Amino acid sequence: MLIVIPAALLAISFHEMAHGWSAYMLGDPTARNAGRLTINPLDHIDPIGFLCILVAGVGWAKPVPINPFYFKHRKRDIALTALAGPAANILLCFVGFFIAYGISFFTENRILLAVAQFFMITASISAGLAVFNLIPVPPLDGSKIIYPLLPNRIVAKIMPYEGPIRFVLLAVVFLGALDGVIGAGQSLVVRTAMRVCNRIFMAISGAF
Length: 208
Known about the structure:
9 helices; globular
């Protein structure tokens, strides 16, 4: 459990920082002005969302503030900003396994192998966080990715119900009803990352 907490904090912080940087690169300084372009977990943690990660393996953080009126292409840029979080988590999954494989490949030092284990756990949590957030249900990133693809009248009908949907989603997460879907997606991302890293280090091994 002790190693899971910092791993989860890193995965969450990287996710939220990616949202903020994406919005900033697209012209919106709101997240920067709010001090959210940081990997410091204290600036991102939502207590309930973090508890969900520890208990159910998936969760969320405080939403990064954005002002879509700064965007030149509002619908597209909202979707890109939303997509940045899960994309960053998938990237972190690959990087985490790459570091872990690299440590295991070059050393048998027990302390460094513990560091490798930390990065493997971080990678796994990050993969789960990416898959969970891609579910197209408010308030998750997946909903903000598909909203720009929907007619405005449909989005307008959905938005008043985002609050109740949030509580339903919370109950569903705690009941484990999404475990199968999230687990399958997480496993796919993790297996792919491990396969890529394994091939890289097998190639390095063959070179020597």
